[in-house]
Structure formats: C-alpha cells, structure tokens
Design goal:
8-stranded parallel β-barrel, single chain, 8-stranded mixed beta sheet, binds magnesium ion, alpha/beta, binds phosphoenolpyruvate
C-alpha cells in the first residue's frame, strides 16, 4: 500500500482501477522487424481498437451534439477500412520489414500529400482526415489508446497533465476520478471535474508504474492510496456510503426556493460546458444556467463548428431547460484553452494575450456565425448572451453593434428569434470593475468571473502551479472588486451574479448574500448544498 499526496481540485472519494493516460509524443522511428506476422497482428489489433474508439466517439457526439457533428467519426471508420490505405501499410511491413508505426505514419503522409494535391476541394479536405486516422493508429500501436472512451470499465485516470481539449473528449461515464502529476486547481480541467462531480487531484507525485492497480482517491485528504489493504478498502467503502447518504439528504432541497429566512431570493444557476451537462443541472434542480462555456463546443471539434452545429446545441440546451434562463457565453478561447485550427500565434503572455472577445472582435465571421446560431436558438427558449473578458466600453459597444447587425440580417430573412434577448457581460478584469457604472448602462446584467478577476487583480497566472499559494481568491482586493461591481449594477437597475468558482465557496456564501448578490452560478454538484446554506441564513 502506497500513499501519494497532492492538491484537491474537487473533493469526494473514488475507488477503482488506475488507467494511465499515455499520450503519444508523435515521434515515429523506423525499426527493423523480423517477425512480419506478429507485426501484422499488432497492426490488426490496433486497427480494431481505433475503430472501437471511433465508434465510442460517434455515439458520444451523436448524443451530445447531433448527427451532423458525429458523422465525421463514421467517415474516419470507413477510411480506416479503405483497401488502398491498408494494402499500402501491409506491403511496407512485408517488403521493407519495418515496424507498423513507421508503415502507418509513412502511408498516412503519402496519402495526405496525394489528397492535398487534388483539384476537388472535398478531396483536398480529406488530407487532414487521413493524417488524423494515421495518428490515432500510431497512438494505439504505441500503447496509448489516448482516449478514455477505450476503457471498458470506469477508471481512475492518471496523467502527467490534462488539457481542457483532452478532458472534454473523455467519456464521463468511464472516469471515476482524475489524478494528474502536474496541473493547477484553478485550471479548466479542475473546473470540468467539478462539473462532472468527480474527485480530482493535481500535483500528485504518483509513479509511472501504477497502470491497472487498484486505488483509492481521497479528495478530502488530497491523497491517492495505491494497492490498499483490505482494512483500508473497507474503511473507504464505508466512507463512500456515508457520502452517498449525505447527498441523499441534500435531495430534500430539490424543489425548494433559494431564499433566506428574511425572504431574500437568490437565483441559483448551474455552469455547463456542453449539452451533456444539462442533465447535471436538471438533476440538481438549478433555476437556470448562468454560464454555458460555449468554447467547449469548439474544443471538441476538429474544425470550426458550423452555424448549424452550434444552433442545434444551443437549441437543445434551451429546450431541455424549458423556459428557464440559459446564459450562453460567446467564445472564450486562448490562454489555457488552445485550439489548433484557430492557428493562434504562440504568445509570451497568453493570459494577457489574444483571447476571448478579443478574438471575436478581430475575426468577425467567427463571431457573426456564433451570434446567428445563438439568436436562432433563442426562438426555442430563454437564452441570454454574455460577452467575456471585457475591459473597455468600446468593446461592449462593438459587440452590441455586431449583434444588432446580425439581428437585422435575420429579420430580413424572416428568421425568428427573441427580439428582446437579454445581453450581459462577464466582469473579470479590474478595468471592467473600475468602469462598471459606464458598462452597466449598456447591458442587462453582470456576471463576475472570479477565476480571471483573481488572476488579473492579483497579477497571478491562474495556471501556474508554483503560485497557488499566492492565488488568494479571498483577498480583500478581490472581495472589494466584487462589492464594487454589485453596487454599480444596482445603481443602474441591473442584476449582478458570480459565475466563477468562488460563487460556490461555502465560506463566502453569506458574504455574497450580504453584499447584495442576485445570482450565483456554479458547478451543478454544489447547488443543493448552497441552497441549504442560503435557506439557513437570516
Ligand atoms: C472566470 O474567469 O471566473 C470564468 C467563469 O470564466 P473561465 O473560468 O472560463 O475563464
Ligand atoms: Mg474567465
């Protein structure tokens, strides 16, 4: 029995087998092989695994974002079965006696080059797909498996680190817990763990040889126990039962108002990253969605999601929420949320760089496509639009001007949408706090992004694990900024909420209510606990 301690990104207990997430480093070496049959068998097994992974990705995408978006994984399955592609790989293994990885990578490059030089635009577009399936095959040959969708039972996923783009691809039903050797508790991967309601630890010095071993993740003590003895296992199973009982007790809060004893109502909303998370919001009886991080739709995709794909996703969320408010934040990528197909330059200071609304203001067509999808979906429910990372008045004015222009475009085509759609901004830069009075005149609500507000107020990179000691979201400067924002909102007759992680901090619930907060939006798993705290308040 071995114990390793790190930092908890989310509490709870998980018991299960460890699966190490092996990531291919992308390098493929040419190696001589003697046993051709064994190499062909290895290739066949990897191909079968890749096809299974693609099927799982197809099923997941179908459920989360619909047929149009899922189709690509079927196309990839067909490509993996293509005779010419397979013959080329097998010939190389047989004739040149090279390892399967090398044969796959070389064939992939050759085929991609051939497709890229074709006249037909559709065929040219297939070059990227050929590269993609070849990379998947190479990863599987190298024992990566890459995707949690390949797991046959729920596992404790161990990795050096997880990028948000990797985390969103995981099959949530197959992951009991995340444990990473690096990573920060303020990262988006940690936020996703909270949404998924699973214990997650970061900065755990767990060795590399733990794959397949039984383990316990204790989110309260921030430890992982590998190979627990019978007694420890029994103790934790009992603790886990108690946790389940506690959750059941909180179920009593379902259907009740979020109101203090003195009669102040607080809107208690949930944060989501995609259509699949609405289930958690409904399960925990949130009054609405206060933050739909729309960028996760982009992170899951291999190319810009089309207007139709986005429309379907937003419409589905609006319909599932059946008239309750759904606040959808426009694209907020950059910093730790990187997407290859955006082809953003490497930056010295990504947190201070080309991100969020700055990208939308520079790349008009991406912005307009999203706004069209959002407005069209607004005809199917109570959608509100929110712009992230605002620092200046002109940014809001330009966003609103673009929104007006898109509205006119839709009106000219008789496309229905919610004419009086509510529009808000995230207050997450010190600049927006300081000019909150002016900004409040332009919008219908403020939602305070305490994750970034803490980062920018204290000048501390939220991703930098070495600085966690200094990242104090309870810092008086942060709390003062929150109070200033709420006061400015109220002076101008609009509401103010918090959608950053601090909104769910039990130590601050009472403080926020006293400050006059109107809405708190959080990981769905924190909603019932917060409702109880507010109902117990005078
Ligand atoms: C925030 O900054 O508090 C926020 C909610 O946005 P994100 O965490 O996605 O940057
Ligand atoms: Mg933010």
């Amino acid at each position: 029995m071995e114990k390793y301690t790190g930092k908890a990104a989310y509490q709870g207990i998980a018991i299960g087998k460890i699966a190490e997430m092996v990531k291919s480093d992308g390098t493929v070496r040419r190696e001589h092989i003697d046993d051709v049959d064994a190499e062909l068998a290895r290739l066949a097994a990897a191909k079968e695994q890749a096809i299974d992974e693609l099927q799982a990705l197809y099923d997941k995408a179908l459920k989360d974002v619909g047929e149009a978006h899922a189709e690509i994984f079927q196309v990839h399955q067909m490509m993996l079965d293509d005779d010419d592609y397979n013959e080329s790989i097998e010939e190389m293994i047989k004739e040149q006696k090279v390892n399967a990885e090398f044969a796959v990578a070389t064939t992939g490059d050759n085929f991609a080059e051939m497709f890229a030089s074709m006249d037909d635009e559709y065929m040219r577009g297939r070059a990227a797909d050929i590269k993609d399936i070849s990379t998947r095959l190479v990863t599987d040959l190298q024992g990566g498996g890459g995707s949690a969708n390949a797991f046959t039972e729920p596992v404790i996923l161990v990795a050096d680190d997880l990028a948000p783009s990797e985390t969103v691809q995981l099959d949530k039903a197959m992951v009991l817990s995340f444990v990473t050797r690096a990573g920060s508790t303020n990262s988006h991967t940690a936020i996703l763990a909270r949404t998924m309601n699973i214990p997650a630890l970061v900065q755990v010095p767990i060795p590399k040889d733990v794959n397949g071993k039984m383990a316990i993740v204790d989110g309260m003590k921030s430890t992982v126990i590998v190979d627990p003895d019978e007694k420890t296992l029994a103790e934790y199973k009992a603790l886990q039962e108690k946790e389940i009982e506690k959750k059941k007790l909180l179920n009593e809060m379902k259907g009740k108002d979020t109101v203090t004893k003195s009669g102040r109502h607080i809107k208690l909303y949930g944060n989501i990253g995609g259509v699949g998370d609405v289930a958690y919001v409904l399960e925990n009886d949130a009054a609405g969605i206060g933050l739909f991080r729309s960028e996760f739709l982009y992170l899951q995709n291999e190319d810009y999601p089309t207007e139709e794909q986005q429309f379907q996703a937003y419409k589905k969320v609006a319909e599932l929420m059946a008239g309750k408010q759904v606040i959808i934040r426009t694209l907020d990528i950059g910093a730790d949320k990187q997407i290859d197909y955006f082809k953003l330059d490497k930056e010295e200071n990504p947190a201070l760089g080309f991100r969020a609304v700055r990208i939308c203001l520079e790349r008009d067509e991406i912005f307009r496509t999203q706004l069209r999808a959002l407005l069209r979906a607004s005809a199917f429910g109570n959608i509100a639009i929110m712009f992230p990372m605002i620092a200046s008045k002109w940014e809001v004015e330009t966003c609103l001007k673009t929104l007006e222009s898109v509205k006119h475009e839709l009106m000219a085509k008789d496309v229905p949408f919610k004419k009086d759609i509510s529009v808000g901004i995230m207050v997450e830069t010190p600049a927006s706090v300081l000019i909150a009075d002016e900004l409040a005149e332009l919008v219908d609500f403020f939602s305070i992004g305490t994750n970034d507000l803490t980062q920018y107020t204290l000048a501390i990179d939220r991703q930098n694990q070495k600085l966690e000691r200094f990242f104090d979201a309870h810092h008086p400067a942060v709390l003062k900024a929150i109070q200033m924002t709420i006061d400015a909102a109220h002076r101008h007759g609009i509401w103010a909420g918090i959608c950053g992680e601090l909104g769910a901090d039990p130590e601050l619930t009472e403080t926020f209510v006293k400050m006059g907060i109107d809405e708190l939006s959080m990981s769905p798993s924190s909603i019932l606990r917060t409702r109880k705290a507010i109902r117990d308040m005078d």
